[in-house]
């Protein structure tokens, strides 16, 4: 028996990157996983999880569309009877200095990262409240709440705002047996980070990745499966007394106070 055996989970942005890692690890711990993603690749990812003998299904959905989120939530509940776990992971980043950030790029990040979480939560929460059980995991970041680099004003704004959402919702649904917690990753090697590396240095993105690793006390980026294990813990009853929390997973990247002090 896995720690999530019998649980039904929804993971957004599950076609690739952190969402794929979360879906794979939740499935490994016994959950049936509904993978929601706007990208067609979601079907391939779900098939590869099923091929390992786990329960999974793909749903192509844009988290910006409330009605679409509601109809896929309805489909999951019709098929599996309930939703126990919601991992709100889908997110996008577009780098630009503040004065160069046009409204379209700003709104893309606000809409996917914030309204998307809002919509998916709205679609799933009524079933959790009815069942008096739920585990909601929100993908924030160290970017925004703790640190930031140039070009990240829109992205950092969304990730910091998600902590306000996490705490307020956690307060509101504690009486319904539902926990709400945020994960704050540092750098995890995903297609998003590969995009950021290409934007930062189109001629040598690998140098950017090596530079990131060099600044992390553990000397490497995190893996999507390490994110998955933290999400699985927060999605399981092992974390039964944790709610409204923000948990940093960054290999120590936010620890250094200076670059020069030390023996
Ligand atoms: P990624 O770009 O590798 O994957 C994101 C996934 O979200 C993709 O499958 C994409 O198709 C999907 N998606 C995008 N827009 C969507 C929409 N409108 N509706 C449904 N799905 C949509 O990114 P990632 O690095 O895996 O990031 C996943 C989450 O982790 C994001 O919320 C991101 O902000 C967060 N995060 C990532 C890192 C990191 O270092 N990779 C660090 C901190 C936080």
From TrEMBL:
<dbReference type="InterPro" id="IPR050259">
    <property type="entry name" value="SDR"/>
</dbReference>
<dbReference type="GO" id="GO:0032787">
    <property type="term" value="P:monocarboxylic acid metabolic process"/>
</dbReference>
<dbReference type="InterPro" id="IPR036291">
    <property type="entry name" value="NAD(P)-bd_dom_sf"/>
</dbReference>
<dbReference type="InterPro" id="IPR002347">
    <property type="entry name" value="SDR_fam"/>
</dbReference>
<comment type="similarity">
    <text>Belongs to the short-chain dehydrogenases/reductases (SDR) family.</text>
</comment>
<protein>
    <submittedName>
        <fullName>Oxidoreductase UcpA</fullName>
    </submittedName>
</protein>
<dbReference type="Pfam" id="PF13561">
    <property type="entry name" value="adh_short_C2"/>
</dbReference>
<dbReference type="InterPro" id="IPR020904">
    <property type="entry name" value="Sc_DH/Rdtase_CS"/>
</dbReference>
């Amino acid at each position: 028996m896995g720690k999530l055996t019998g649980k039904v989970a929804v993971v957004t942005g599950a076609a690739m990157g952190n969402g794929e890692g979360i879906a794979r690890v939740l499935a490994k711990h016994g959950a049936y996983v509904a993978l929601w993603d706007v990208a067609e690749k979601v079907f391939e990812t779900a098939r590869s999880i099923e091929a390992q003998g786990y329960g999974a299904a793909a749903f192509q959905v844009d988290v910006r569309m409330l009605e679409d989120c509601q109809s896929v939530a309805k489909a999951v509940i019709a098929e599996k009877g309930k939703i126990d776990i919601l991992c709100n992971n889908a997110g996008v980043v577009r780098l630009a200095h503040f004065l160069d950030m046009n409204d379209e790029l700003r709104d893309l990040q606000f809409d996917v990262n914030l309204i998307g979480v809002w919509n998916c939560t709205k679609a799933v929460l009524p079933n959790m409240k009815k069942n008096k059980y739920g585990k909601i995991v929100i993908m924030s970041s160290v970017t925004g709440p703790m640190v930031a680099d140039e070009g990240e004003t829109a992205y950092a704004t969304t990730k910091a705002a998600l902590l306000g959402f996490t705490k307020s919702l956690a307060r509101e649904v504690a009486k319904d047996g539902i926990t709400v917690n945020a994960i704050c990753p540092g750098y995890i090697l995903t297609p998003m980070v590969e995009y950021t590396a290409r934007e930062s240095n189109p001629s040598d993105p690998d140098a950017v990745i090596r530079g990131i690793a060099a600044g992390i006390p553990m000397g490497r980026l995190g893996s999507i499966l390490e994110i998955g294990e933290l999400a699985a813990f927060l999605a399981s009853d092992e974390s039964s007394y944790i709610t409204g929390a923000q948990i940093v997973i960054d290999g120590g990247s936010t620890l250094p106070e200076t670059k020069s002090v030390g023996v």
